[in-house]
Amino acid sequence: MKKRSKSRPKLSKKPFIVVGLVVIVLLIAFVIVDKTTSLFKKSPDMSGSSYTKGIPQSSGSSSSSSSTSSKGDGTSGGSSSSSGSSSTGSTSQSSGSTTQATLTTPLGNFVSDHHPNHGGSPAPNTITSVCSTTPGATCIISFTMNGVTKSLPKQTVDAGGSTYWNNWTLQSVGLTAGSWKIQATATLNGQTATATDAMDLVVSP
Predict the structure, then answer these.
(1) What pLDDT band is residue 31 in, cutting at 50, 70 and 90?
(2) For the chain, where are the E strands, in sequence order?
(3) How far apart are CA 126 and CA 140, in angstroms?
(4) What is the pTM of this model?
């Protein structure tokens, strides 16, 4: 009798394929995790190194800022001293200006002609007036007769110490025929100084 050969059951290859795929997936996952971990490790090192580098820089900048602030203190100290000197200078200037601001009594040829007339003949009726006093003061020339006062417009004395009224007429001021007292009044910083002309303005018809 022939012996029957027992057929061995064939092993399925699917489990091996599955195991191989799992191993491959695990290897890929391990490689990815390893790279990711290395990246994370490098990142703190880099940030740490940059942070470490940043510390000296920040400390250097803070030291420079402190030195700057100290320089600023020195500068402010210098400015305070200069302000002190300027205040002293302003005080001396103000005292000097106070001395210069002393008002002087008006002088000058208050009228160029003491005997004018309205008709302009034989003497012209146009007159020139001058008032000399402290520069910056205001001056006014007034004419008084029988309680009536007429005056030239108020003017400011120039740096040369004089102010002028050129070629004004009797009619423009309203001076009628008669004898008018002439007076010049200067004003400056609440001070007033007055001068009276020794001669009257005698106006003829």
Answers:
(1) confident
(2) 126-132, 138-145, 148-151, 155-156, 162-169, 178-188, 191-196, 201-203
(3) 18
(4) 0.51
